[in-house]
Input
Amino acid sequence: MPEPILEALNLTRHFKIGGSLFAKPKVLRAVEDVSLSVRQGETLAIVGESGCGKSTLARMLMRLIEPTSGQMTFEGRQIDRAKGRALTELRRDMQFIFQDPFSSLNPRMTVGRLVGEPLETHAPEMSAKDRRAKVSELLAQVGLRPEHADRYPHEFSGGQRQRIGIARALASGPKLIIGDEPVSALDVSVQAQVINLLADLRDALGLTLVVIAHDLAVIRHMSDRVAVMYLGSVVEEGPTDEIFASPRHPYTRALLSAIPVAEHGRARHQIALTGEMPSPLDPPSGCRFHTRCPFAREACRADVPALRVTDTAPGHRAACHFFEEIAAEAPLPRATEGSGRTAAAQARFAMYADALAGGTLRPRETA
Ligand SMILES: Nc1ncnc2c1ncn2[C@@H]1O[C@H](COP(=O)(O)OP(=O)(O)OP(=O)(O)O)[C@@H](O)[C@H]1O
Ligand code: SF4
Ligand SMILES: [Mg+2]
Output
């Protein structure tokens, strides 16, 4: 099994909100005690509802914001306090792809300058001629043409702009790329192309990917492992196939039960998630999911469940006191016709199925 390239241990980030002469600031617990490890060459997907802390976690992993506490290592080196040259090297080795390829690209810079800029920082010895050649090579790698270097971001489509963002991320020769919803702003047909591009680049360049995605279809198609977040914490993680086939945490079961039958090959009801996600300013005691969990009982309000290894596969862990009982007593029920499929989820999966059938999207290779 490949070595971990990036590891986080008990990573926590709190934000202080408000506060004045007369009132203490409140503490917003955006990420709480997250430990995870990303292995060389794999794609880890991070999924969860809006506001659960995905972007905050990704920004900490990139050292774009500081953790309140916890530790991180990259290739075995401690990076949570890295400064100076160590931080510059980290910026070269780990790159970020943003959700919105328009606002993340400076509109006044040509594509050539945008893609060439990281080379000025990370390869200052490179001559202007070599830099131009390298920019052409990077543009070709992401499916753009050398003459695109003279144009400006507004002259490109959304998918092309995301390709420019990817070329810029590749310029420093990174080992790991973190994408925060890298395709969610794009049309579904274009999403498939950009997903394929990222998968091809990962394989060709030996990259490791961490991808944040709302969309379970995207995750299913591109990740090797999934971490499911709820209200700042990882509640379940494991190999993608295991998570989709045998989710153990009631929250994951609820998320996945919205997937239409045809895609998954197994009929199931939608387990409705009732209520809003509670505020991270005042998270519930014990298991943070207890206010919405259909299986909650007294112990859930008192004790925080640890991430424990499940019965299904090595590396599959869930943070629920009772997942064994729940899996035995409440297997994912069979669906009756028409139950529990949101129109949006159904439409999205149909489009992915079409893309797969038409050969524009390749299925993820399973080991
Ligand atoms: N700089 C900040 N100051 C204060 N609160 C913040 C800050 N950044 C994030 N938060 C809060 O932290 C929580 C987690 O936010 P985050 O952006 O990480 O969520 P997310 O899972 O990425 O959501 P989305 O799917 O909507 O992008 C939210 O409650 C958010 O309001
Ligand atoms: S610990 Fe309790 S509340 Fe939390 S997910 Fe498990 S059953 Fe539900
Ligand atoms: Mg986010």
Summary: The radius of gyration is 22 Å. The chain has two domains: 4-223, 227-355. Residues 261-270, 334-349, 363-367 have pLDDT under 50 and may be disordered.
